Amino acid sequence: MRCALKMLGICLTAIFLGTIALIVVYHIPTDTIYRHLQKDRDIFQKEGNYWSWANKSPTKLDGFTDSIMLMNAAYPVDSVPTSAMAVFKWHGKGSPAQTFVKALNDKNDESLGKTSYYRYWHGYLVYLKPILFISSYHDFRMLNAYLIFFLTTAVLILFYLRLGILHTIAFAITILFINPVTVAMSLQYSTIFYITLMSVLLILWKNDKIYKNNLYVYFFLIIGILTSYMDFLTYPVVGIGIPLLVYILLNKDSFDNKKFFCLSVIKNSCAWGFGYLTMWAGKCLAAFVVLQHSILPEVLDALKNRTSSEVSAEVLGHDPINLITVLQANFKAAVTGPWIYIFAVFLIYLIYRMIKNRPYGIVSPPPPEMFLVSIFPFIWYSLTLNHSYVHADWLAFRDLAVTFFAILSIGIEMTSNQKKENNNEQ
Read out DSSP for 183-250? Predict the structure, then answer.
């Protein structure tokens, strides 16, 4: 009961601080942001909505959503609290990229209207507005690439120190699947990538302290809160699945009773879900207090749409869809490019290790919790059929990073356990 009250208190505090943070950054003059973004007009004229730098799904950028995010950051502010909760942007007849280019040409263009995006927190504006106040989108992309390189390097070093070379390779292959080059060039893809890497970094660095003080339930709660606050519904399963797999790898031998360890994994997963959903509900509460009207009908309507099995038959060719259809679309996008060959070669190597170390084909079982986490993407896809199908080709397929990392980790654990047993027998 005390734990539940603490979790609720953390969520309420996060809702309050999240609201204040948005109100603060909405005081930043948008005229300066607008002038800086005018330098980026050529990017969106050239790239449009879904430009690809290598004609493959993992290399496809989301200019559609990046245009929305940048319009949110640059739209003129009348009333700060109202704008912070309503998140206004320009609206036109064309795509968001076309509308954004038109707004950069003339923000007072009479053909442009005004609309809002109530249902998300848009917490990315807390860092995006200050960055765009002093630099352009061009500069953001370069800065993003630098930060991703150094953060990924730091995580890989810690992986090697804490879990060894094989797990380091497995994680590096997973990062290649997500594709850091594409992430560096896109606002939309960056939020979950940073949340995931920073979570993994903290787990690898401070695991002993977090574990001994029984803080992991609050740790995953905060990850869920940050995901709900920052993310634009991209590939959120990666934000829970990858850190949870690292938690399992580090702490699998710490529990004498394996049933308790399984329960701890489930508990941490539920804490993430509680933080995610409570923070989202908190946006409805904060918006109601500030705007004096309920946004719940819009939220429920969007939720109904994104979880339905209905899509546009004219555009997508399937009406209705089911889980099999969604999985086919996401795996089709996932198993493209040279990444799949790197994954296959490493997997074959792990199978070879099993055969070599166990002539009779007997292998040591890996932590069963890994199998549970490996199906998280499938659970997510089943709950968000419409969203996961519509966005499969450039976005939703990245959730499968959890499954692929779990497969490699399971293979490593099976061969690692064998090595320990063989040494004991000798």
Answer: HHT-HHHHHHHHHHHHHHHHHHHHHHHHHHTT-HHHHHHHHHHHHHHH--SSSTHHHHHHHHHHHHHH
Query: How is residue 371 written in tokens?
Result: 């199998």
Ramachandran bin of 214, using left for φ above 0, alpha for ψ from -120 to 50, beta for the remaining angles: left
For the question of whether the overall pTM of this predicted structure is more than 0.90, the answer is: yes
Structure tokens at 319: 């009406």
Where do the structural domains in the chain lie, given as residue ranges?
2-425
Q: CA 395 to CA 190: how far, in whole Å?
A: 12
Instruction: Say which residues have a Cβ less than 8 Å from residue 358's Cβ, sequence separation at least 6.
Output: 418
60 has which bridge partners?
52
Separation between Cα atoms, residue 69 and residue 131, nearest integer Å: 13
88-91 and 113-116 beta bridge pairing: antiparallel
Q: Report the 10 Å Cβ neighbour count for 389.
A: 24
pLDDT, block means (10 residues), the chain with 426 residues: 90 96 95 92 89 85 92 92 92 89 88 87 94 92 94 96 95 95 92 96 95 93 96 92 95 74 90 95 91 83 78 59 90 90 93 74 74 95 90 91 96 70 40
